[in-house]
Amino acid sequence: MSVFSRPDSKYWWLYLETTRQKERTDIRIGTTVAQRRDSRKLADDRYHQRMNEVAARLYRLPTARQAIRFLAYSEVYERDVVPHHRGAGRELEILKHLRAFFGSTLLSLIDQDLVRGYMTDRRKTVSANTVNREVCLLKAILKSAVPKYLDASPAAGMKALPTVPPTRRFMTPAEEGRLLKHLAKDDAAIFLIGRDALVRLGDILDLQWADDRGSTLYVRDPKDPKQSRPYAVPVSTRLRQALDKLPRNGPYIFQRRRQAEPGHRGHVYRIALERACKAARLPYGRKKGGITFHWATRRSGATLMLQRGAELKAVQAIGNWKHPTIMLEIYAESTSREARRAVELVSKKA
User: Which of 115, 149, 154, 300 is buried most, with the most CB atoms less than 10 Å from its CB?
Assistant: First the structure.
């Protein structure tokens, strides 16, 4: 009964005695005597191959791995794994760069030398932090290919590139006023949600009108993997006014910015922000020591709250920071700035 047919199937079936498992093959039985004879031989060969694979698994013997190219496997990873990650949008962006480099390379031929080559190539155009994030995803992809396609991940244990924390730029209220004049109404509202309510860009773009509770906004699915619980943030007076001016063209508050693919929505908004900065004559981007969305909104907004007397715990709750570490850093930056101003008061003429 190792190879058998069924009246309801056009294919040969296998019965694996060791595991008492029945499997359908992709081998058609055929209709003529010659076809049945030839297909039966193929089915017998497949049976012996499967029994050897089962035995190797049971006795932990080495077996030949299936061959698959990075491009094909990355498509499987994108379909079956990425959608379950909170940072799915960012991973889709990174996959583009990984595919461009590793593309048709067999998974089994990827080694640490090739990964280092990728790191060197990408470092020419992006920061070490960005390269490290991309390699982190590559490691996850290769690890998920074990044991079906790889015995072990070739990138396991590779060290990240050394990084130097970039100088972060605080955005002053005067700069904010200049920038808002050059943003469209919906883009300005996005910026204010980040600055006044300290919400992350990915979470802002997911906001629906049903999440607008008047005095609060409900963040139902935070994208930060460390902050998975829904939470509500208070709405400032000026943010309320900005939201009330927006048209309701669909279920999402920022329907226009959701027209891009999920992995590109944040990038598209940042392009608009960069253009507005250029029009307002403000530097944009870390390399230029300029404005970035995160630091102009969450970090600068939290800094202003603390400088103007808000309680540390209240700011932490608004920003949904689980641990106070970030808040203490912001507080230290704020008090250092105040201290510098204070020492200048000594020599100030009355």
Answer: 300
CA dihedral of 150, 154, 155, 157, whole degrees rounded to 10: 110
Position 160 scores a pLDDT of 94
- pLDDT single digits (tens) 224-246: 656 668 999 999 999 999 999 99
Query: From the CB of residue 297, how many other CB atoms can be counted at a distance below 10 Å?
Result: 27
Answer yes or no: do 188 and 337 share one domain. yes
User: What is the rounded distance in angstroms from the CA atom of residue 102 to the CA atom of residue 110?
Assistant: 8
Domain count, the chain: 3
pTM above 0.70, yes or no: no
Place of tokens 């307002």: 280
CA 196 – CA 318 distance, rounded (Å): 9
239 and 98 in a common domain: no
Last residue of a domain, one of 94, 124, 144: 144
- pLDDT tens digits for range 243-302: 999 999 999 999 999 988 777 788 899 999 999 999 999 999 887 788 899 999 998 999
Cα 170 to Cα 299: distance, rounded to the nearest angstrom: 8
Determine the length of the chain: 350
Quick one: 278 and 204 in the same domain? Answer: yes
Walk across the sheet containing 11-16 and list its strands.
Answer: 3-4, 11-16, 21-28
3-state secondary structure at position 24: strand
